[in-house]
Amino acid sequence: MSSGPGLGAKAFPPERVDESRRDRVRATRASARTRHNVSTAMRADRRNLAPIKYHARMWTLNPLRSPAADVALWRLDLDHATPWHIDYLQDLSDDEATRALRYVRPADRLRFVATRLSLRRLLGERLDRAPRVVAFEQGPHGKPALARSGLQFNVSHTGNHALIAISTGLPVGVDIEQIKPARDTISLADKIYARAEQAWLKAQHDEVAGFYTVWSCKEAVLKAWGCGIAGHMARLSVVPENDGQVTLTFDETPQLDTHAWLLPVPEGYSAALACGPARSPF
Ligand SMILES: CC(C)(COP(=O)(O)OP(=O)(O)OC[C@H]1O[C@@H](n2cnc3c(N)ncnc32)[C@H](O)[C@@H]1OP(=O)(O)O)[C@@H](O)C(=O)NCCC(=O)NCCS
Asked: pLDDT tens digits, residue range 91-143?
């Protein structure tokens, strides 16, 4: 933990420091500061969709306009150059903090911590609970869900960004991909994409970006279904239409209960959101 203001050697001479008391005081002050910052930021968020800035500017949480009426969306912009702050772990569960500290690469740790902490704060705000006591459970294929709540959510993170989607209705899936041009991208599409997807791809002026558009859309749908991607990617076909909708088929059967949209994201990324159905097909 870092030193809070007013907790220097003058207030607590080193030889007489009560460590546990000092830690409790620091934690209370840090938590009060965090609560104040977050609730102020959330009020601003509701008023005018203003971006929320976090303490040391390691990340910013930007509300996005959502294409789905009952889904709220945010994009995190991460600043990997700002020094890491241990205080970020205080609102995570013990398991999450342990997982965070296990990441070898700082960028991976920041992506996980910033996303999970922001998710806890956004859900906590809606459930009127402190972020740390928001309780998660896992679906059979690892999809995190809220224990005993009608709210649904999903997150995705890569590079300098993350997306968070919270739904008051149907299950939701979100995916963001960083576009990494590689020589075999198009041959991979020939192997794993459905004919309709390949035809859509060939019509794009940037086939590599198109590859990622289709990929993020497939992944968002599979994340909404909560089934994992292994074994399902090639069975699902997603074809973006001119009206912004996406036509979905699974094993060539139209999936009319699931809806997907491409999301506007910063240059070099692709992203998609998917919703439904109420009961997972898996
Ligand atoms: C879900 C999955 C596609 C995400 O892969 P990714 O592209 O590396 O990661 P993203 O950043 O887009 O999404 C990660 C987030 O998705 C969520 N997630 C994990 N499993 C999920 C699932 N089955 N469905 C939906 N979302 C899932 C988590 O919140 C995770 O965030 P976290 O790592 O911060 O906890 C991949 O992890 C997967 O296929 N998992 C299922 C594996 C499986 O079937 N396991 C069997 C367990 S018995």
From this structure: 899 999 999 999 999 999 999 999 999 999 999 999 999 999 999 999 989 99
Q: How far is the CA of 69 from the centre of ligand 1 (A)?
A: 24
Nearest to 221 by CA among 254, 255, 173, 178: 173
Contact between residue 126 and residue 135 where contact means Cβ atoms under 8 Å apart: no
Atom of ligand 1 nearest to the CA of 158: 11
Asked if the domains at 19-169 and 175-275 fall in one CATH topology, the answer is yes
In tens, the pLDDT along 25-56 reads: 454 454 444 444 444 444 444 433 445 555 55
- What's at 174, amino acid-wise? V
CATH of 175-275, one of 3.40.50.2300, 3.90.470.20, 3.30.70.100, 3.55.50.30: 3.90.470.20
CA distance 86 to 31: 13
pTM for this entry: 0.83
Q: CA-to-CA distance for 146 and 167, rounded, in angstroms?
A: 12
Mutate-to-test residue for ligand 1 from 75, 120, 180, 223, highest number of ligand atoms within 8 A of CB: 223
Both tokens assigned to 40:
């102020």
CATH architecture under which domain 19-169 falls: Alpha-Beta Complex (3.90)
Q: Which residues line ligand 1 (CB under 6 A)?
A: 112, 115-116, 141-144, 154-158, 173, 175, 219, 223, 226, 228-230
Residue nearest ligand 1's atom 34 by CA = 112
DSSP class per residue in 153-196: EEEEEETTEEEEEEESSS-EEEEEEE----TTHHHHHHHHS-HH
Round to whole Å and give the CA distance between 73 and 171: 14
Residue nearest ligand 1's atom 46 by CA: 141
